[in-house]
Design brief:
By secondary structure, this protein is mainly beta. It has one helix at about 25-30; strands spanning about 5, 10-15, 20-25, 35-40, 45-50, 55-60, 65-70, 75-80, 90-95, 110-115. The longest helix has 4 residues, at about 25-30.
């Protein structure tokens, strides 16, 4: 059974910080590179950051220096620490395996809204 539960979103002022969490089922998480994705209104879902099972991380250029991805393999949980938030970071944030697409199962996501 695939289960992805994202949390930690909210309303924050520009320049603020949030920490997102995603609890995943073991069959999704274990041994896989995990990613955080986001989808803004009217835009396609995009990969924001990913982290391998061993902890090696990559982030998109648009969030480099502001977002950090990490994971806890003992808890099947992946995190996204976001700081220096900008208006353009407003989106619904999802986690899933790296490379997931529209045919894969997704969680409900967590809304991040950045205000000026």
């Amino acid at each position: 059974q695939v289960q992805l539960v994202e949390s930690g979103g909210g309303l924050v002022q520009a320049g603020g910080s949030l920490r997102l969490s995603c609890a995943a089922s073991r069959n999704i998480f274990s041994g896989n590179t995990m990613g955080w994705y986001r989808q803004a209104p009217g835009k396609q879902r995009e990969l924001v950051a990913d982290v391998t099972d061993g902890g090696s991380a990559n982030v998109a250029d648009s969030v480099k220096g502001r977002f950090t991805i990490s994971r806890d393999n003992t808890k099947n949980t992946v995190y996204l620490q976001m700081s220096g938030l900008k208006l353009e970071d407003t989106a619904i944030y999802y986690c899933n395996r790296w490379g997931s697409g529209t045919r894969d199962t997704w969680g409900q996501g967590t809304q991040v809204t950045v205000s000026s």
